[in-house]
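Researcher: Here's my situation. A collaborator sent me these components and asked whether they could plausibly form a single complex. I don't have experimental data yet, so a predicted model of the whole assembly would be a useful starting point for our discussion.
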Amino acid sequence: MPGPNDHHVIIVGGGFAGLWATRALARAPVCVTLIDRANHHLFQPLLYQVATAGLSSPDIAAPLRHILRNQANVEVRMADVERVEPVQRRIAFDDGSTMAYDTLLLATGATHTYFGHDEWAAHAPGLKTLDDALHLRRRLLLAFERAEAESDPVQRAAWLSFAIVGGGPTGVELAGTLSEIAHHTLRREFRHIDPASAKVRLIEAGPRVLSSFPESLSEKARAQLQRLGVEVVTGTPVDAISDEGIRLGGTFVPARTVVWAAGVAASPLGQSLGVELDRAGRVPVLPDLTVPGHPEIFVAGDLATVVQDGKPVPGVAPAAKQMGRHVGETIRDRLAQKPTTNFRYRDYGNLATIGRMAAVVDLRGLRFSGLLAWWFWLAAHVFFLIGFRNRLVVLLNWFMAYWSYQRAARIIVGHDNARRASDADAG
Amino acid sequence: MPGPNDHHVIIVGGGFAGLWATRALARAPVCVTLIDRANHHLFQPLLYQVATAGLSSPDIAAPLRHILRNQANVEVRMADVERVEPVQRRIAFDDGSTMAYDTLLLATGATHTYFGHDEWAAHAPGLKTLDDALHLRRRLLLAFERAEAESDPVQRAAWLSFAIVGGGPTGVELAGTLSEIAHHTLRREFRHIDPASAKVRLIEAGPRVLSSFPESLSEKARAQLQRLGVEVVTGTPVDAISDEGIRLGGTFVPARTVVWAAGVAASPLGQSLGVELDRAGRVPVLPDLTVPGHPEIFVAGDLATVVQDGKPVPGVAPAAKQMGRHVGETIRDRLAQKPTTNFRYRDYGNLATIGRMAAVVDLRGLRFSGLLAWWFWLAAHVFFLIGFRNRLVVLLNWFMAYWSYQRAARIIVGHDNARRASDADAG
């Protein structure tokens, strides 16, 4: 806990940026308070696997306290930060209490936005947290159950119709995996429906999927999605979403299950900094990742907007890690009165998985797709998963899934409006 | 799906009794409809491991559809049965629809009861379903977080005080494991509290814990619990439970976290049969497990009360499996016009685990406890877990937990009253 003479660093957010900053401060003469709403660090790149029943929550999450238990200068706190008070140099929690800092790092990331249509949230849940993933898993699995119980063929088809809105990496992963579930995993399990007749549509407002990749790889991705049974609809914005389906350019498409994988908005915490934000609510930071006029406040990860060589640094995990590490090193060097440097993003490449044996890889010009890309993606993701145990379990699960087409976590827990809560006699 | 000429068997409940009955009908000339509120069969003996963060839900659950996908005469339906209408020979669902049967098996098990104090449910959750287990996991893990954030020493001690009500197998397992978490798993992770100072109390109204075991093993269990740091309080009924603690024989004991492991009541479905139930709401069945006056209705598992050699058959998994198998065989033999037999429970022994390297075993007179009993318990439970994948993952998790004192599933998901829902920017 911070003594009166220690330099007190508050880090808000235990994602990639916050955690890597905390670690970079391991040997610095500071006291760090790491604050997160959740008790865990989440390996977000594999969150879609929890949503599609391939992995369970603990496979991709580890308690922050546990990760940092041996770093003596860190205190982890599970709490909700409501705002920053930059003039007083303190943060305010939702319970009204405050905490003073000498240096602050905001790394609370991004959430999804419905572009002003917040009423869509109830019909088209997004995917950012473990809670989101478990909610989505329940929705996806229940849709097949509802279809099986439905006797009206029109309603049945609507339950077997899925729309994924947003053709970025998350949307592509969800569409590809959901199609695999329908075509392979659930085979032979139902008596009234053929799960393989399910319609999975990926809807992208822009001209192509995976727009952060070169055009040739977007084309490969589209072809691979189609091979997996996904209908790819590009250039078509969504006009409306309801419980029954979506409206696309004036045409109603029935779909009882809609997933929102479009529209990223930065966490609202940046609003309390008193600086102008960009359109997505991100904080434009100086080249050393500090807030203009506040050298004691850093912003890193998806909450920061950093322009480098005329292009924004992408909102991906490697960028967040690099920013976090840079912030930690800058704080350390400042206290040691050493010169500090500007942040420089090193782009090692861009990967996206699509489904079984399908992925695209762009390693600074070296581009490939298909099976080889999928193995590359798999190796990279297992390697970067935090924690020895998780890597082993994830590998084991994937091996079994690959071999059997099965998915380990096809368990419906929790309840939605359609089912009663706290019923406890299902055996 | 049942054709007009098939003998239609409805089985309500996909627990041990229902699933084993379904399997015993694999080659019988019947159509089976297996109905459960959940989509999965749950390996209930390991549920406490999910509640205490050792295993994740999919480790101990498998989709019923998947288990039964190759049994062509079975249709699985995820639905809520509201009542039986024995005169019309049909069941009614909560949506108002009905389904006719030729033969019915009710195997909906038991839930917990608060002996008329339903207001205790909010303060002292029980453990019967996966939802219960995840709720409990959240409560147990959050208690340590709250203690860490609390500056008032009295309140801090209350957050570090746990009461488990009920000294049966579930209460004993929970108390022993929770004490291990406090003393070992969380070591070095907190900065303001010492988790090992947590007080875990196991409260039993009767004279001894594990009352279904011989007295000598109850004594061993108590000694092993005390060695693990649990305070065992026997002969003391609970008078009151509130958010702040419990009242025991007039004395108030602070405890912000109370778990209810006492009081089992049969599922309410038995009430619609029109026969007199026993005190716990169970259905007294004839020696062939049918309901008096209704040879076409069977009851098995925890919902049935069967007296054999003057003693009730215990509510344990092996008894439920044996009953289920007997019901399936009886239906098959009846249709083949073969003679049927009465049910006979074969008692192979009684096991209970207490915690790390601590258990008691009673194999028809061969009694042992401690490390050897623990290994025996472990082997038996892994062996009986459904599904190859689950066994491997569970073994792996246990090996890692044993070796490192760590617990893989220490992830807080969902929300309770104290935390906001659908917050999505925790990184």
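Model: Some features of this prediction you could bring to your collaborator: The longest helix of chain B spans residues 130-149. Chain B has two domains: 7-112+264-335, 118-262.
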